[in-house]
Amino acid sequence: MDILKDKIRKEGIVLSDQVLKVDAFLNHQIDPRLMKEIGHAFAERYRGDGVTKIVTIEASGIAPAVMAGLELGVPVIFARKFQSLTLKNDLLISKVFSFTKQTESTIAISAKHLSADDHVLVVDDFLANGHAAKALIDLIGQAGSSIAGLGIVIEKSFQDGRTLLEGEGYRVESLARVKSLADGQVTFLD
Ligand code: 5GP
């Protein structure tokens, strides 16, 4: 997706050869026009696949997921990372190891929003080693729902996430595939 790659080149900050900061348009300040294009791009890839719900994880997955949900005409559920007074009963719970925080946390969604009739698109901002995606897949599996595939805004292809997910038979669609962050430079796969 060229406009996304341009945005990453212009506004992305390489924090290390492992971590890219995109808080100018995705992770803190959000560029709504770009999110709209991202939602459209995900919808183009999964239209006609019978997606009934989108599942993402708070906070940075929400903006691209909502735009994809708008385009596909389906609801969006975000897994919560923190205990909430309003999220108590019938919780689906999984553990996720955070790449950026290097800590394990618990994520949850309410069971009432997913059923065995649902065919789910998983959306997230980044794919690194696939821990967040695997935790979301686990939650969706607990509900008995099936998975249409994953929609990732920025994939770091030098990490193991895609290999892991494809190895388990999941379809992975990434809008920007970063080949390397070496020497402070972002280079893309294609
Ligand atoms: P994974 O679970 O695939 O190892 O990592 C993906 C999750 O970690 C994403 O939900 C994202 O929030 C965070 N993440 C991974 N790599 C990066 C990165 O380079 N930059 C930012 N901003 N977040 C990342």
Automatic annotation (TrEMBL):
<keyword id="KW-0963">Cytoplasm</keyword>
<dbReference type="InterPro" id="IPR029057">
    <property type="entry name" value="PRTase-like"/>
</dbReference>
<feature type="domain" description="Phosphoribosyltransferase">
    <location>
        <begin position="32"/>
        <end position="156"/>
    </location>
</feature>
<feature type="binding site">
    <location>
        <position position="27"/>
    </location>
    <ligand>
        <name>xanthine</name>
    </ligand>
</feature>
<dbReference type="GO" id="GO:0032265">
    <property type="term" value="P:XMP salvage"/>
</dbReference>
<feature type="binding site">
    <location>
        <position position="20"/>
    </location>
    <ligand>
        <name>xanthine</name>
    </ligand>
</feature>
<feature type="binding site">
    <location>
        <position position="156"/>
    </location>
    <ligand>
        <name>xanthine</name>
    </ligand>
</feature>
<dbReference type="InterPro" id="IPR050118">
    <property type="entry name" value="Pur/Pyrimidine_PRTase"/>
</dbReference>
<keyword id="KW-0328">Glycosyltransferase</keyword>
<dbReference type="GO" id="GO:0046110">
    <property type="term" value="P:xanthine metabolic process"/>
</dbReference>
<comment type="function">
    <text>Converts the preformed base xanthine, a product of nucleic acid breakdown, to xanthosine 5'-monophosphate (XMP), so it can be reused for RNA or DNA synthesis.</text>
</comment>
<dbReference type="InterPro" id="IPR000836">
    <property type="entry name" value="PRTase_dom"/>
</dbReference>
<dbReference type="Pfam" id="PF00156">
    <property type="entry name" value="Pribosyltran"/>
</dbReference>
<protein>
    <recommendedName>
        <fullName>Xanthine phosphoribosyltransferase</fullName>
        <ecNumber>2.4.2.22</ecNumber>
    </recommendedName>
</protein>
<comment type="subunit">
    <text>Homodimer.</text>
</comment>
<keyword id="KW-0660">Purine salvage</keyword>
<keyword id="KW-0808">Transferase</keyword>
<dbReference type="GO" id="GO:0005737">
    <property type="term" value="C:cytoplasm"/>
</dbReference>
<dbReference type="GO" id="GO:0006166">
    <property type="term" value="P:purine ribonucleoside salvage"/>
</dbReference>
<comment type="pathway">
    <text>Purine metabolism; XMP biosynthesis via salvage pathway; XMP from xanthine: step 1/1.</text>
</comment>
<comment type="similarity">
    <text>Belongs to the purine/pyrimidine phosphoribosyltransferase family. Xpt subfamily.</text>
</comment>
<feature type="binding site">
    <location>
        <begin position="128"/>
        <end position="132"/>
    </location>
    <ligand>
        <name>5-phospho-alpha-D-ribose 1-diphosphate</name>
    </ligand>
</feature>
<dbReference type="GO" id="GO:0000310">
    <property type="term" value="F:xanthine phosphoribosyltransferase activity"/>
</dbReference>
<dbReference type="InterPro" id="IPR010079">
    <property type="entry name" value="Xanthine_PRibTrfase"/>
</dbReference>
